[in-house]
Amino acid sequence: MTSKRRGRGIRGPLAWPRVPAMRSRSDRFDEVVLDAFERVCDRAELRKSPIELAVEDVPPSDPAPWEDQIALARAFPAQNSLPARVVVYRRPIETRAATEAELVELIHLVMCEQIAGLLGIDPDELKD
């Protein structure tokens, strides 16, 4: 839809087409987390036991007793009818990565640690 703007020419479209540059930082973070999650699950051959994934901005203000620093992620084992869950915290991870490559690597390492913890295996087994 275009219209004249009081002598200033034709106005552009009301909504731009979605382009990769228009994605927000949190959208890009979510994509990297999902990619790392899928890679680690494929490596661990997790097709039978589902694990839910969530991304939150920051961890809750009540850290677990064994946590002496801010958590980057948390894994919750399956209970009753609830499947196992991994929650990744965006801001603590972003503050520790200076570049996009460091962010991707850190997320992959965090995902390996969390899923390995749920499976009771060594995280090195899941790293590629």
Helix and strand arrangement:
Layout: H1 25-44, E1 51-56, E2 73-76, E3 84-89, H2 90-96, H3 100-119
Parallel strand pairs: 1-3
Antiparallel strand pairs: 2-3
Helix pairs in contact: 1-3
Summarize the structure.
By secondary structure, the chain is an alpha+beta fold. It is 37% helix and 12% strand.
Description of the molecule:
The protein has 128 residues and is of the alpha+beta class. The chain has one domain (24-59, 70-125): 2-Layer Sandwich (Zincin-like). Helix content is 37%, strand content 12%. The protein is built from three helices and three strands; from the N terminus they run αβββαα. The chain has a three-stranded mixed β-sheet. Helix 1 (25-44) crosses helix 3 (100-119).
Helix content: 25-40%
User: What structural category do the secondary elements indicate?
Assistant: alpha+beta
Strand content: 5-15%
For this structure, the quaternary state is single chain
| Strand/helix succession | HEEEHH
Q: Treating each run of at least 4 consecutive H or I residues as one helix, how many helices?
A: 3
Low-pLDDT residue intervals, each spanning 5 or more residues: none
What does the overall shape look like? globular
Number of strands: 3
Rg estimate, integer Å: 20 Å
CATH class: Alpha Beta
Provide mean pLDDT, rounded: 83
CATH architecture: 2-Layer Sandwich
* Strand line-up across the major sheet: 1-3-2
Count of structural domains: 1
Distance between the termini: 50 Å
CATH topology title:
Zincin-like
